[in-house]
Amino acid sequence: MELICPAGTPAAFREAVDAGADAVYCGFRDETNARNFPGLNFSRDELRTAIDYARRHGTQTFVALNTFMRAGDEEIWYRAAADAVALGADALILADFGLMAHVTERYPEQRLHVSVQASASNADAINFLVDAFNARRVVLPRTLTIADIARIAPQIRCEIEVFVFGGLCVMAEGRCSLSSYATGKSPNMNGVCSPASHVRYRQEGNELVSELGDYTINRFPAGEAAGYPTLCKGRFDIADSRAYAFEDPVSLDVMGEIDALAAAGVSALKIEGRQRGKAYVAEVVSTLKRALSADPAKRAALLAGLRNLSEGQKTTSGAYEKRWR
Amino acid sequence: MEFPRLLAIPLNYMPLAAIERATGMLFQRLLKEHPDLFERLGEHKAKRFAFLPGDLPLAFIVEPARPAICVIRKSAMRSAVDASVEGPLFMLLALLEGRCDADALFFSRDLSITGDMEAMLAMRNALDDADIDLPRDLSALAGPLAPVFGKMAEDIRRRALADEVSAWN
Q1: Contact between A39 and B102 using a beta-carbon 8 Å cutoff
Q2: Cα(A146)–Cα(A320) distance, rounded to whole angstroms?
Q3: Which residues contact A33 (CB under 8 A, 6 or more apart)?
Q4: Peptide bond into B67 cis (omega under 30)
Q5: Strands A199-204, A207-212: parallel, antiparallel or unpaired by DSSP?
Q6: What are the Cα distances from residue A185, in Å, to A78, A182, A188, A258?
């Protein structure tokens, strides 16, 4: 199985390549991708240099253009697609059907992957994208079990990529409006979930208080590991208790199930984390690369070291091993 | 790895102008080696950033637009900054070199960030991409002693990072 690795900066890109990534995914410095964070991402020149570096090391480059086009401003996304194709991207990762149609029509030879943001989670939806836009791969949402994936795989006519490590989005991706609700900005339209411009941290006594817009997201007592200030991982007063309404601050780690994922028909394993630093990228990519070729009995020990890099310093297999309804 | 307390105490009594001059020389040298250091800041370049080593009595205020760095005593810190980051000195230096992941240090509560998160995020990403190597970049300032200085600095870094890695794992 291929290992698909994140890069938010050229330095992180080189680290991912050097650590053994089969492919690195990245985006331009604008709202065309779902990690449109300040100081992150690639200029056209930086992407050209990165693709050249990747090619020389036998690594592919995927360019994420995975936000939804804003009516009247489609040209921003069309230009990004044209530039990514011209620069030699090995695949474009797209979510918007309109942009998929544009790319298929203008650049029929360009390999197209369906972003997790497209929320294509059943065989009919995926096959529609294969037939309509010649999609060659789908990145499945993190809401499916391994058994679900095994049921879908034989019914679809493209490769499957799944997230195996990193930030855990527990919602129907591309459809989630929680960030929009709190801040007016979303990963779907603006490329930012819980944008930093709306985040505040303050110390209140012994507690670290995180706020998003007008909402208090969490209060971390001294010594408790912290998490990102997203509504989906907020701790709220519910009836008589204060608890996590949707999900704890926790990251995904399903590397212990890679044999089951391979048996289910998965072709590529994706690491989340374009917003993370190059040290994280280097550590995670090299560890997962070693884990892929390690004796299954030794994988858990290899991967345990990554837990402290994770949100809340905890990991979960999430919906892949769903034991609830 | 914390900055040795015995070495930190004299900083309370040293003339601030001397500390600032030395810090300014190091800062200008870094800018010479990395002229595009603050390019990723974009609109946040005009902001003021405070770096607060928890184990030193000093605060370092960086103004990328000028570009300049000033040093003040924490006890006298009244100047307004847009964003600040606080943690042990060697951890801040490791972040400057992109050798630690800021999110992970935030999760573990080793690092605290206040103020304009967007500006600080942009600064983090700018530094992370800069490929700063302090022993390599600064050793030239030592003139003929550059190789000795570089080797000493690398040794200190190796020991400081070893502590960080063991904390991660």
Answers
A1: no
A2: 5
A3: A27, A41, A64, A65, A66, A67, A191
A4: yes
A5: antiparallel
A6: 22, 8, 8, 35
What ipTM was reported for this prediction? 0.92
In angstroms, the separation between the Cα of residue B50 and the nearest Cα of chain A is 15
Nearest alpha carbon to residue A199 among A170, A168, A228, A232: A228
For chain A, percent of residues with pLDDT exceeding 70: 99
Apex CA A139: angle with CA A137 and CA A140, to 5°? 125
* Pairing status of strand B83-87 against strand B112-115: antiparallel
- Measured CA to CA, the distance from residue B8 to residue B30 in angstroms comes to 23
DSSP strands (E only) in chain B: 49-53, 58-63, 68-73, 83-87, 112-115
Residue B118 pLDDT > 80, yes or no? yes
Strands (E), A68-197: 91-94, 112-114, 137-139, 159-167
CA A253-A259-A262 angle, to 5 degrees, is: 100
* pLDDT tens readout for residues A69-127: 999 999 999 999 999 999 999 999 999 999 999 999 999 999 999 999 999 999 999 99
Q: Which residue has 């184990």 as its token pair?
A: B55
Using alpha carbons, select from A275, A271, A272, A257 the residue that is nearest to residue A322: A257
**Contact: B103, A275; criterion CB under 8 Å:** yes
Percent of chain B clearing pLDDT 90 (strictly above): 67
The phi and psi torsions of B60 (rounded to 5 degrees) equal -110, 120
Chain A residues 203-262 with CB within 8 Å of chain B:
203, 208, 220, 222-227, 249
Domains of chain A listed by start with CATH number? 2-168+250-324 (3.20.20.70), 178-244 (no CATH)
Work out the number of other CB atoms within 10 angstroms of the CB of residue B50.
22
pLDDT in tens, B155-166: 888 888 776 655
State which H helix or E strand residue B4 sits in: none
Question: Nearest by CB to B108, which of A38, A202, A308?
Answer: A308
pLDDT above 80 for B38: yes
Indicate the DSSP class of residue A317. -
Q: How confident is the model at residue A300 (pLDDT cuts 50, 70, 90)?
A: confident
* Residue B15, min C-alpha distance to chain A (Å): 32
Chain B environment of A277 (Cβ under 8 Å): 98, 100-103, 124, 128
Is the Cβ–Cβ distance between A114 and A135 less than 8 Å?
Answer: yes
Q: Inform me whether the pLDDT recorded for B167 exceeds 80.
A: no
Tell me the C-alpha distance between A208 and A172, whole Å.
29
d(CA B153, CA A296): 40
* Nearest chain B CA: its distance from A145 CA (Å): 28
Task: Provide the pLDDT for residue B168.
Answer: 46
Residue A270 contacts residue A278 (beta carbons within 8 Å): no
